[in-house]
Amino acid sequence: xxxxxxxxxxxxxxxxxxxxxxxxxxxxxxxxxxxxxxxxxxxxxxxxxxxxxxxxxxxxxxxxxxxxxxxxxxxxxxxxxxxxxxxxxxxxxxxxxxxxxxxxxxxxxxxxx
Length: 113
What we know:
The protein has 113 residues and is mainly β.
């Protein structure tokens, strides 16, 4: 059974940084194609970033230049480095396996102004 466990969320002031981690477990599970989504209260869930061997890395325009997604295959973990955070980045962030549509439980990020 596959599990995706996010960590690293929290409360930070505008302009600050956070690094989210998503540890994947499960037999023969590959982090080849992974994504980070977020959902703010009253808003639709949106794709923030994704990474795959075939297509490289993609970022939503709203986070381009501020967020960096990476992965460590040896640890079966993906990361989302978030810099220059803004209040509008406040949301629950979810790690997703794009091939299997597995979702983590989410981690809350709150950016105060």
